[in-house]
Design brief:
With 380 residues, this protein is an alpha/beta fold. Helices cover 51% and strands 9% of the residues. The radius of gyration is 26 Å and the shape is globular. This is Aspartate/glutamate racemase family protein. Keywords: Isomerase.
């Protein structure tokens, strides 16, 4: 990492140096006058900048990267808002590490992007239950201000307050970009995005990452032919509020159509996630659910609604609950030539890309600001 001298200090040193040199030109002070000492102080500060930059003009990004030992990427710190459930948050962090290594060619510990995982499960209520009991099905079609008012209701069981607190923790730890590792939690995205922005954090939407991943998959299958038919494995809350439908329709009009399992198969989806004691099913294996840590039977149960989506003509199946990719993956769909989107991975890929872009922008801005003072070295 390039050592940083605060640009305000550099600017101050440059200004002091210029003033001192101007004063010296008006008179002939003693050889070791205070003014000479002042000039030397300015010279030392600006020379330090030159040493850090290896004698290169600071606006040259490639020179900066070469100075740190190779063209390895820097990343802004990423905040992972986890705990929904805890296994999904941990899996997101694992996927992020894999993305750094395999998509950004990171080869050392020091070159990885920094991230902070906030897993505050006890303080974040169940999103699906709250949405079912307290939010209207047409929430996504209402005005933004009205949505935010509903989503920030002060009642204690509103998950918004725990998620807001988790964002505060990530911001306090230095995160500049953040993700929420729960699909259903994105029902609260508008309110959480506004809060994150007030803390200097850019919050990313999981549906945007899915759109990018689906388009990438279509490119690899001979091109994009819209609309792409997406089969969605998600919670009742995500389905009933039209979370994906509304986001994709507004940002990517006419590109995607979404189908969900019928009532019987959706019950199996929920049983797989939350356990069959909470969501009884007919003719399927009993399980404590992915959230209960029972993966084998949960996987067998989840494959049933997944198959109905494929049989219904889905070109892509999304694990639009972040627990889903914990039990099924692309191999389950290869024989059908159907793309499976792991929403945890697509979200973390978007986060890494955004973090890289933010770091590059910051580095260039720093270089340009230092560049304004670099010419002072020529007169020192």
């Amino acid at each position: 990492m390039i050592p940083r001298i605060p640009t305000a200090n550099v600017a101050s040193a440059a200004a002091n140096l210029a003033c001192a040199q101007a004063d010296i030109s008006k008179s002939q002070p003693p050889a070791i006058s205070p003014r000479d000492a002042f000039v030397n102080e300015g010279r030392s500060a600006l020379k330090a900048v030159s040493d850090i930059l290896g004698g290169q003009r600071p606006g040259n990004t490639q020179a900066l990267e070469a100075k740190r030992g190779g063209a390895l990427p820097d990343f802004a710190k990423i905040g992972i808002i986890g705990g929904m459930g805890p296994a999904a948050g941990n899996a997101a962090a694992e996927r992020l590490v894999d993305i750094f290594q395999n998509e950004f060619a990171v080869k050392s510990d020091q070159a990885h992007g920094a991230y902070v995982l906030v897993s505050d499960s006890p303080n974040i209520g169940d999103r699906t239950a709250y949405a079912k009991d307290n939010l209207p099905p047409d929430l996504g079609r209402r005005g933004r201000d009205e949505r935010i008012k509903m989503l920030t209701d002060p009642r204690a069981d509103n998950p918004y307050h725990g998620m807001k607190g988790a964002i505060d923790q990530a911001a306090s730890a230095g995160a500049k970009v953040a993700v929420i590792t729960c699909n259903t939690a994105h029902i609260w995205f508008d309110a959480l995005e506004a809060h994150a922005e007030s803390k200097g954090v850019k919050l990313l939407h999981i549906a945007d990452s899915v759109a990018e991943e689906v388009n990438k998959a279509m490119d690899g299958k001979g091109g994009r032919h819209y609309p792409v038919k997406i089969g969605q494995l998600a919670t009742n809350g995500t389905n009933s509020t039209g979370l994906y439908q509304n986001r994709l329709a507004s940002k990517y009009p006419n590109q995607f159509s979404i189908t969900v399992p019928d009532e019987e198969q959706q019950q199996k989806t929920m049983g797989s996630i939350y356990g069959t004691k909470n969501f009884p099913v007919q003719g399927g294996p009993e399980t404590n659910g992915i959230k209960g840590g029972e993966y084998k039977n949960s996987r067998d149960l989840m494959l049933e609604p997944a198959k109905t989506l494929v049989d219904g003509g889905a070109q892509v199946v999304t694990g639009a609950c972040t627990e889903v990719p914990l039990v099924i993956n692309q191999k389950d769909f290869d024989a059908h030539n159907v793309q499976f989107v792991d929403t945890l991975r697509s979200l973390m890929a978007l986060a890494a890309t955004q973090a890289k872009q933010m770091a590059d922008t910051d580095k260039t801005a720093l270089g340009n600001e230092l560049n304004q003072h670099f010419s002072q070295l020529k007169t020192v």
